[in-house]
Amino acid sequence: MIRILLAEDDDVMRQYLARALERSGYAVTSVDRGTAALMLLEAEAFDLLLTDIVMPEMDGIELAQRCAEIAPDTRVMFITGFAAVTLKAGKAMPQARVLSKPFHLRDLVLEVDRMFQVGSASGHI
Description:
Blueprint: E1 3-7, H1 11-23, E2 27-31, H2 34-43, E3 48-52, H3 60-70, E4 75-80, H4 83-92, E5 97-100, H5 105-116
């Protein structure tokens, strides 16, 4: 099963995203800040780091850069509602995907499916 580490500081958004990904067959571990995600990356193996960019303590870009050092095989996808931050993320981590808010949950699941070349496990969100 593909393991996703979700770092999102907004409680409602984090629960919403985790639920959609779990319903689509992914194993999701979610945290509310980058520093908590970093500790998990050091202790466990994940296939994907799905991270908001703007978060307290450690932003998603720094988290992704640290992830690349700790677990270079872990793929990265950013989610953000800030256009200027999207450009910064693309320059800092050109191999990462960026999904801009607002997005439909179906779009998130399809993008994750594409990253791992799988079809959605249930087809339902």
